[in-house]
Specification:
The structure holds 2 protein chains of 2 kinds.
Chain A: H1 8-44, H2 60-70, H3 81-97, H4 116-137, H5 141-172, H6 177-182, H7 194-207, H8 219-222, H9 232-257, H10 268-272, H11 275-296, H12 302-330
Chain B: H1 2-23, H2 27-47, H3 51-75, H4 80-110, H5 116-121, H6 132-140, H7 145-166, H8 178-183, H9 186-189
Helix pairs in contact in B: 1-2, 2-3
The chains are: A mainly alpha, B mainly alpha.
Chain lengths: 337, 211
């Protein structure tokens, strides 16, 4: 049996099985993240949240999914049909394929590649296309405005995000996500690189178009922004893509700064717990902050958003990068590669 | 086997999309085909074992350069009738440029010689025991550091040039002064009044205060 998995066909089948084992929990996670968001925001705003369908409203995500599936898909007359249908697929597809490199435990990644973190950066830089194509293909003013906003926003925040990642990389000396986690055995990078941790998380909010940076949707100004013309399943794919991206950014934050699957304290009772459990706990903590931020902060104005990205985050991350490099060099802590 | 099949599929997509960049009528579709071509080129890099170059190609070209292309092309108001008229007028020039390029390519292909220095490079082959990110870095930051820094300086200068060319006087429109807003106290702007019944409060004449 094991010999079969070493043949060409076997490797393909094994990879498919691995992908399935990741995608199914991910999709269930996405479904329940929407539920969790509504419950948590309900609690913050002194409401009950969904509580009708199933016990505690637990079947609500599935009810929503069914509703979306049975609605009519409307394609606007003046739209570019092919691109209009492709855009949500791109958004959702990218949100899923980025997961191929995330290690949920020691070596538990579908592809444990040398340039894991660059792969993540590449995929997240592609994410803007789903939005920009949707905005253009809809042939609608609101959608187009939303797409332009989002394109400028994602490109701006990617710059400081890149510098944050470089700072982590010079502390690790490897682009492999597994190595990045293992380098945090003594101390999580969130502590020595705390400012970068904060910048990364906030850039993550901007990168996923989440509140308070959800200007691409901006319901009060441009109706719903880039997906204003979408309905039924094509809308659902955008919706799922946004939540999958949230989980992805949380997972990236966990891997880069919170020590991935490592236990918070490196001795007995903590190390008995399997790594996946720690990974998930950290992931959930990040996701909770995502929701918390959305329920707490009002939306940024567009010029404030740009000022924050270019005039605050970029200089700080650049300066901190030089500082970290200098400290590592002076004390001889640079990793050997 | 699988790698061979994949190579031909990816190359076919790359070439087709490269042709479509030139031949598709809609400029936005052209940019999208260009992006497809970039991504397939990245896959080819990946298959050649150059994973760092593959990822950088996607991050830089697809993630940044092509987004800006797309930005510009989407904002353009393309007049197809005028475009078609232009094609006839500029066809001779285009053909001439194409001919020159083709002649140059042919010249290169015919008179191709391998530099004698190239054999020396084989004496220090890419080390196989390190990832190609490390190999690239240890070459770029040691042997070619001056060229590398020079390229960076040129890019910086061109960036400054672009900013200088496009920076205009921005005094039109409202600007926000955050420090001034933070320094604002309630006493500066508020006045407590006991308004008498039937008379109301008297407002002072509005002063010119722009924040």
């Amino acid at each position: 049996m094991m010999a079969f998995f070493n043949t060409d066909l076997g490797i393909v089948i094994l990879t498919l099985l691995k992908s399935l084992a990741l995608i199914v929990p991910l999709l269930i996670g996405v479904a329940y993240l929407t539920y969790a968001e509504r419950k948590v925001m309900g609690a913050i705003q002194l409401r009950k949240g969904p509580n009708v369908v199933g016990p505690f409203g637990l079947a609500q995500p599935f009810a929503d999914a069914l509703k979306m599936m049975f609605k009519e898909t409307i394609i606007p007359a003046g739209s570019d049909r092919v691109l209009f249908i492709m855009a949500p697929m791109i958004t959702f597809g990218l949100a899923v394929i980025a997961w191929a490199v995330i290690p949920v435990n020691d070596g538990w990644a579908i592809a444990n590649i040398n340039v894991g973190i660059l792969y993540l950066l590449a995929i997240s830089s592609l994410g803007v296309y789903g939005i920009i194509i949707a905005g253009w293909a809809s042939n609608s003013k609101y959608a187009f405005l939303g797409a332009l906003r989002s394109a400028a926003q994602m490109v701006s925040y990617e710059v400081s995000m890149g510098f944050v990642i470089v700072t982590v990389l010079i502390c690790v000396g490897s682009l492999n996500l597994n190595d990045i986690v293992m380098a945090q055995q003594h101390i999580w990078f969130a502590i020595p690189l705390f400012p970068m941790f904060v910048i990364f998380f906030i850039s993550g909010l901007a990168e996923t178009n989440r509140a308070p940076f959800d200007l691409a949707e901006g319901d009060t100004e441009i109706v719903a922004g880039f997906f204003v013309e979408y309905s039924a399943m094509s809308f659902a794919l955008f919706f799922l893509g946004e939540y999958a991206n949230m989980i992805l950014i949380s997972a990236t934050t966990t891997v880069l700064f919170l020590g991935g699957w490592l236990s918070p304290l490196p001795f007995a009772p903590f190390t008995w717990v399997p790594g996946v459990f720690w990974f998930l706990i950290k992931l959930f903590a990040c996701l909770f902050v995502f929701i918390w931020v959305r329920a707490t902060l009002p939306r940024y104005r567009y010029d404030q958003l740009m000022t924050l990205g270019w005039k605050v985050f970029l200089p700080i991350s650049l300066g901190y990068l030089v500082l970290v490099a200098g400290v590592l060099e002076v004390f001889g802590w640079l990793p050997n590669v | 086997m699988i790698a061979n099949i994949l190579f031909y599929i990816v190359s076919a997509i790359l070439l087709t999309s490269a042709v479509m960049v030139v031949s598709s009528r809609n400029p936005v579709h052209s940019v999208l085909f260009l992006i497809l071509a970039f991504i397939n080129a990245a896959v080819l890099f990946l298959m050649a074992g150059a994973e760092f170059l593959a990822m950088v190609l996607v991050i830089v070209y697809v993630g940044a350069v092509a987004v800006l292309f797309m930005f510009v092309v989407m904002m353009l108001d393309v007049d197809f009738v005028a475009l078609r008229e232009g094609v006839q007028r500029y066809a001779p020039i285009g053909a001439a440029v194409g001919l020159v390029l083709f002649a140059e390519l042919a010249f290169v292909a015919v008179s191709w010689t391998i530099s004698p220095g190239a054999n020396l490079l084989r004496l220090s082959p890419t080390p196989t025991d390190v990832t190609n990110t490390v190999a690239l870095g240890s070459l770029l930051y040691t042997k070619y550091i001056f060229l590398f820094q020079m390229a960076g300086a040129i890019l910086l200068v061109s960036m400054i040039g672009a900013i200088v060319l496009t920076l205009r006087d921005r005094n039109r429109g409202k600007r926000q002064n955050v420090d001034l807003q933070h320094a604002r106290m309630p006493a500066d702007t508020m006045r407590m009044v006991n308004a008498k019944l039937g008379e109301g409060a008297k407002m002072p004449a509005p002063t010119e205060e722009v924040l």
